[in-house]
Task: structure prediction
Amino acid sequence: MLVSTIIGMAQRASGILGVGQTALPQDMTDATALLTMMLQQWRQKRWLVFRLDNVMFPVEVGKGEYTIGPTPPPPTFPSNWPAPDVVTYGNYRPANIQSIYLRQDVGSGPNSFPIDFPMTILQSRQQFDAISLKNLGSWPASIYYDPTIPYGTIHIWPIPIQNFFQLYVGYQQAIDLAPEETSNVDFDQVLPTETQEAIMWNLAVRLCVAYKLPPDQQLAAAARASLNTMRNANYAVRPLRMPQALQGPQRTKNPMGGFYPETSAGIPFTVLQ
Result:
């Protein structure tokens, strides 16, 4: 469905337009701006985002900070503004980091394979500031993402001392602003189809507020129901895990993350049926 079609349906649903009426150019401009701002808000809500984008990049020895974002920078910045260390998809600076792991490209044996190691995401500047020795060089274990503008900044700690690591960063899916601002673009090309009804009803609610129309309970209910459908479709929450400090000693490792110690040591064991 075209962007202009959804905007027209939202204008009629809100009561701004009647059947057969056409919106003035200023009304279309305002509705498109409201649509853009609404989708920018939705991007920051994990339960409304249908997938995560990801990017993997090599880390350099002795380098603990990496900028991440779009290229080229926004038009308001100088043309000679330096490009980020990590270029994201969709011309979008991530607002936060959803997942992270470290990949060791080279193993210890001749027939070894790359191994991924989970990392801790420090959720606040206070956590990062609490690290006493920020220049420690060792095996990277955690990151802190500082959402600076126009590029975000990834701080790695400890700072890597080997050059065979890659960092995998997952962040919420972005929608290019160019298709959002083009009325002839088909939303089927950038969003799942179940999202379109939610966009239409919620844009209609915002149009009612913008044009000072009286509240419509049926319209608000339709907007909530469509958003609930999106939440059910996009539900992707990692299962809770017991903290490592409370687990105590374990006989075996998780088979999804490594090998049984008995097997790697050459000791046979019996699996209970």
About this structure: Residues 52-172 form one domain. The first strand starts at residue 52 and ends at 58.
